Amino acid sequence: MTPTGLTNSQVTERRHSGQGNDVKLATSRTYSDIIRYNVFNPVNIVLYAIGFGMLLVGDYRSAITTVGLVVFNATVGIIQEVRAKRKLDEIALLARAKVSVLRDGTEQQVDPADLVLGDLLVIRAGDQITVDGVVAGDGKIEVDESALTGESDLVPKTAGEEVLSGSFCVTGETLVEATRVGEDSFANKLTQNARQFKTEFTPLQREVNRILRVLLLIILFFSILAVLGLFVLDLPFSAWLQIMAVITGSVSAGLLVLITLNYSWGAVRIGQKGGLVQQLNAIESLSNVTVLCTDKTGTLTANKIQYQDVYPLTLEKAALEKLLADFAASASTTNKTSQAIIDKLGGQKRPITSEVPFSSARKWSAVAFAGGGVYVLGALEMLESHFAMPQAARQQVAGWSEQGLRVLVFAGNEHATTLYDAGDQPVLPPLTLLGVVSFSDELRPHLPETISAFTSNDIKLKVISGDNPQTVAALARQAGLPGDLKAVSGPDLARMSPGEFAQTAAEATVFGRITPQQKEALVTALRNQGEYV
């Protein structure tokens, strides 16, 4: 039966019932909010009071100068924050490109905001998936989820498997049924906090505001005394004017504007290097940073995987490498790992009867060759229950991990013929470990110099990644991170109490197998301990 998708009447009904992909992208404040804050912030309010006092005492030149400084101060802030708002409005995880959707049996191009729950999306190579869903067609696709999970490998998706909003289709074509839209989608939940414009005062601003509040109270106090003196003690009006002149001259308006000028100059210099300063006080924030959290993939590494070596157990090395190459070449879909094997070892494409593509949840892939034999390549922690592992192989895994190599295991059963049970769920037969395979990640150029610049300024670095913590720790050492790097995994963090979690966040340097939610929790824990992150 050929799928036809929803009818137009069903789309209208679901939209009216609140099942549309309606999301307000609150990337920043409105223009009116920006103007209101910059005109009436605490510093400018004090300057208004000073200017008004100068006006009362007849010092018109100083009053005009002070108000002029307020206008200049506000204008600089408004220009910078409006520029930041425009940039932030452009930076959203979900691009506003048209989406192909099947409705009334025909393919249509619609805006992502017009999607509703249950829509059938037509997904092709190059498309970004804008809502969460499941693969409904019989096609196969490979998606890039690195923006969501930090994992660089492409993830194959077949019928019934979930796809997440924010991921990209790299190869293949299929239909995807929308299961979560709007604010319920994964991408919108993940980026909700990141899209908000938050105002936080720097230490210098807090000190300046505190001093200004004290001075404002002093001005009010002496103003009251002056009024009492004028009417109760019958002081001459000239004496009151002299008192107000002294009070209003006690605050250096130029100093406040000088701070803004320095912020602005820093923002301009950063902008010339391609950076974006959301708020002017971010310039000072950079000088106060005590902890920098960074990812591995694409940050420490250049996101280029290369086949390194194989440690054979039951076969000769040449025979094992040929089997491994044929395994990679025979899969219907390839990812960066299998492509690295093919690039180095070649491989002959052989007919297969069954296949389990790689997924970030399973962390392994498998094929069943037509002539018999099931073979699987994946993460040790996900496969070690299926085979016996000699101590020598464990030592090899540990040794390669300490060198910063990415390590996978290759196992097989030459007599098995299937990879699925009666319920069509992936299932592995008993396996024999054939070998341990290593891959290398290329570090980004000039990385050691960059890290040295941070550490020389007493900024602590913490690497938070979705990869194996020991491998990440070794790469961090190669990159030049100093000291004895303590590594911890996401599953270990999940079992900790809040107190243990906070202590580990402070003491550890490398965090592996970390989820996006754990990344946010780590930053929060560090900030709660007084770190500037």
Key words describing this protein structure:
single chain; 18 strands; Calcium-transporting ATPase, cytoplasmic transduction domain A; 533 residues; eight-stranded antiparallel sheet; alpha+beta; 19 helices
Question: In this structure, how is the largest beta sheet organized?
Answer: 8 strands, antiparallel
Please identify the oligomeric state.
Answer: single chain
Euclidean distance between termini CA atoms? 55 Å
Q: Do you know the CATH architecture of the largest domain?
A: 3-Layer(aba) Sandwich
Instruction: Give the CATH superfamily of the largest domain.
Output: Calcium-transporting ATPase, cytoplasmic domain N
Predict the CATH topology of the largest domain.
Calcium-transporting ATPase, cytoplasmic domain N
Q: What is the CATH C-level name of the largest domain?
A: Alpha Beta
The residue ranges in which pLDDT falls below 50 over 5 or more consecutive positions are: none
Tell me the number of helical segments per DSSP (H or I, 4 or more residues long). 19
Q: Which overall shape is indicated by the principal axes computed on the Cα atoms?
A: elongated
**Count of discrete domains:** 4
What is the number of E strands? Answer: 18
Radius of gyration: 31 Å
Strand content: 15-25%
Structural class: alpha+beta
**Mean pLDDT across all amino acids:** 81
Q: Helix share of residues?
A: 40-55%
